[in-house]
Amino acid sequence: MSNSNLLTIMTFLPTVGAFSILLIKLLKLKVPERTFYGITIATTFVNMLLAGKLWSEFDPNGGVQFVHHFVWIREFNIEYFMGVDGISVSMIILTTLVSFLAAIGSYNITKKPAGFFALFLLLETGMMGTFCALDMFLFYIFWEVMLLPMYFLIGVWGGPRKEYAAIKFFLYTLAGSVLMLLAIIALYYTSKSMPGIELTMADGTKTVGDHTFNVLSLQALGQAGLFAGANPILGIAFSKIVFVGLFIGFAIKVPMFPFHTWLPDAHVEAPTPISVILAGVLLKMGTYGMLRFNYGILPEAAKWAAYGIAVFGVINIVYAALVCMAQKDLKKLIAYSSVSHMGFVLLGMAACTPQGITGAVYQMWSHGIVSPMLFLLVGVLYDRAHTRNIEGFGGLASFMPEYSGLTGLAFFASLGLPGLAGFVGEVLVFIGGWGADASLGNFQPLVMVSVTSVIITAAYYLWTMQRMFLGKFNEKWSNLNPNLTLAERLTLWPLAVLTIVFGIFPMPIFALMNPALHELARIVVSSASA
Amino acid sequence: MTAGVSLADLGHFLPELILGATVVSLCLADTLMDAQSPRKKPLGLLAIGGVFVAFLACLDSSGEMASAFYGKIAIDPLGSFFKLVFLAITAITILTSALSKELPERNFGEYYTLLLAVTFGMFLMAGSNDLLIAYLGIEMVSIVSFAMVGFRLRNKRSSEAALKYVVYGGAASGIMLFGISLLYGLFGYTDFTEIHHALNAWGVQYFEQGLATGGSPFPITLLLAVTFIFAGIGYKIAVVPFHMWSPDVYEGAPTPFTAFLSVGPKAAGFAMLIRIFIGVFIPEGEGTGFSAENGIMDFPFDLPIPALLGCIAAATMTFGNLAAIPQTNVKRLLAYSSIAHAGYLLMGFVVLSESALQAVIIYVVFYYFMNVGAFTVCQAVRDLTGSEEIADYAGLGTRAPLLAVFMTVFLVSLTGLPPVAGFIAKFYLFYAVIEHGGYWFWALAVLAAINSAISLFYYFNIVKAMWLRSAEDETPLQVSPIYSLICAAMAIPTLIFGLYWTPVSEPAKEAISIYRSPKPAGIAEAPLKPQEPTVQIAESK
Prior knowledge:
The complex is a heterodimer. Chain A has helices spanning 3-26, 35-57, 86-104, 113-132, 136-145, 147-157, 162-190, 215-223, 238-253, 262-269, 272-297, 299-325, 330-351, 354-385, 396-399, 401-415, 421-434, 444-469, 486-504, 507-526; strands at 65-73, 78-84. Chain A is mainly alpha-helical. Chain A is globular, with a radius of gyration of 22 Å. The relative contact order of chain A is 0.10. The longest helix of chain B is centred in the N-terminal third of the chain and has 32 residues, at 156-187. In chain B, α6 (131-149) packs antiparallel against α11 and α13 packs antiparallel against α18. Residues 519-541 of chain B have low confidence and may be disordered. Helices cover 72% and strands 1% of the residues of chain B. Chain B contains 21 helices and two strands. Chain B has a two-stranded antiparallel ribbon with strand order 1-2. Chains A and B meet through α5, α6 and α7 of A and α17, α18 and α20 of B.
């Protein structure tokens, strides 16, 4: 397998899996009950191994690698262009890992399994493609391709209010992405060759009409100041309005206050494995997109918007943490805690210091490990008790010791206990935010406000632990299975181990993404003000 | 322009002649056949054979550039492109009609005759290079359609629909005829080419004089003429405020014909709009019109036509989408959705650039696949369950999974989500609007984008019913394999063109390239006649 095909194979392997499931279904083959589950686990496992290969062969200082590049539609200069840098590799590893664990975690999907697993695999294709695509058109297609499987996965296999949650998720994301589409078209139309930046296609020919969707070319043009000087749109500076268009599309996915309301609904109604993917990977696409496109292509507008992003980040952090305090549904609590934790990503990104931006992406990474674990844990309890009402439990610590221990670990990781994965990202964001360049505005009050969330977060997690695991055991639950099943252990323990490993030894991830991230931060800070 | 009608003219007119011959032979065969003998199959075969031969003839002449019958009919890639689309929709309609349970067996002779007559009318609309031919085409389509809409005999809804269609159609064509007479009065010609020359030769002077002296009727008359003509076409393409007929007609007409109506005459209307707006009003000479760097055509005299169309487009798509939300009947929902799509398409005429019109043509083709597909599923479900209500689509995903999958593809495409054809169509349109740039165009683009997000909601009402709800009666439906085949024939291109659409976008580009200046070869020889206008407006002051 040549390296140029690796990303393509990783992206479309799940599609192959999905189609083999559909084919089995279409031909009405007699297969054992668990075949589709097995195919999904096998596919995601192979993808995880390939991600390991990618990681081992990737050179963090080598820029964009594993490029697969050819002309797709010449008329619009659309190319099939896959390639990864350090940021994308870290996200791809996370995607394959979370997908694999979510696949194992789908053991109790018995309703229409063929449909579920086919859609699940298509979703993985969409996620992989989004992180690999380096052509904006291709990126947009992968970005949108995820919506449909997600709609059905929530809508068909979800909880009581699944219809509402599914369409709400879809409408919110689509409303954002149509704005994004307009912004992408505007970028395309404004792009043109500049001295030293010749726009060419994969086969070396000149682009039609001298426009391009090539992200690397667009970044080079943006960093050379093309978009900063383009004609204004609707009376507002071009780069600012395009930035906002893209940003809203991504912010809805993050989700950033005030666009976050779809998330609790989607999470509460989604089946456990889908919650896992939603929290573990999908939310990161928003912040990934911001870094790749908003920051990379429109650095001067990013500088202009940095303070605003930071303010919204702080609102996310504090507001969502306060909302968590009021939650009675465990899954909803964890959903809101996701909103709060993604706020740290926004704050760290906005600060644009090496520590801040590394902290932001590390937070994406650690949240990608911790929040799937939390959702899996909720799933474990819900499968047994068929309720998620925090008040309804009590004294579980003595009844389900293994479960309580793992939950405790996940809670502490999520609230940022030093030594666990959540801590590294948060503390780097605080440090980075405090040292933000003065040209971006005064970040110190923002950091001070956001630090309060550490206390609020500790409060809601500890209080939840107290209500669920301590105190008097509710005898109603004495006939539940106190032990974890094999599938549950297989999903929870790896995450528990990773939580600890990446809490005390974050260097592999830092080494992977820092060169790319520090360069990005430097570009934004040093760009001329918009 | 040749002197007189020659045999070559007939050669150019071959696809139309074949259609005409098929119409006549259908009519004769129907009359000669025994009253009791089945008509569906033999006459259907005859009709589809005629369509197929016409298709081949059309394909054969698709690269030609000529004009026939004193320049009244234009033969060019633009016309051929649309004619191929018309034949494709007619062929599918013949098939779906034969499957339909709404149509009485003994009337199939008339049905096919009328259907092909409508197609003939659409050919005239797309090929017209003369106001009168255009009017003739539009009337031929309208009048025959009235009969087709009311084809479900003794069905109240069908009759009501037909009556509504007649009343609105009569009013619209009257207004259009008035517009035509105004245009004739101004220039003394009905021929598009001649009007175009006249406009560029001395129309400018008159216009400026009219503005300078003030009170001269020339500018306002020209504006009124264009607006009135647009009213007639607007009725055919169902844009606000000429849309009122369409929900009732779509719901009342036999489903196969509704599918036909939602694509065929609409596409013909857009073809005619291109013929009139570009053919007549494109500036003449080197470096103007589509040959200019950005390929944008400016409407002459700063007539506020694009602004007017922009408002209509905005109103149409917003109204169509909002009105579709509360619909519970699938056909009615698709009627409002087709109003919304006409709004999107009209954006192309607001921009009036080469890429915008290319987008319009691409949109028409993709719209054909997705909309006809959706109506075919609707008809299949109606045949099986007897209902067109969204509520009765519940559980279709388990009862008839293949149909439900196809319907989902069509609805996703109508919403405009990648990776299916509908997205590409919208992408081309949005691109054209943004390429033009400018305050109002950005506003229009944003409005259209928001509208396509809104449309998700009602399209997915159907998807929700099919997949998320379960039916009370879970027995699998026995879908006729022909329905599945037709749906597949519509769904597979919808999927493929979503990923690779060069086979459509290139011919579309070629079709619209006839308006690149200098003038297209076929019409270019026409001599420029500096002739005084018949109505002496300037002196009438």
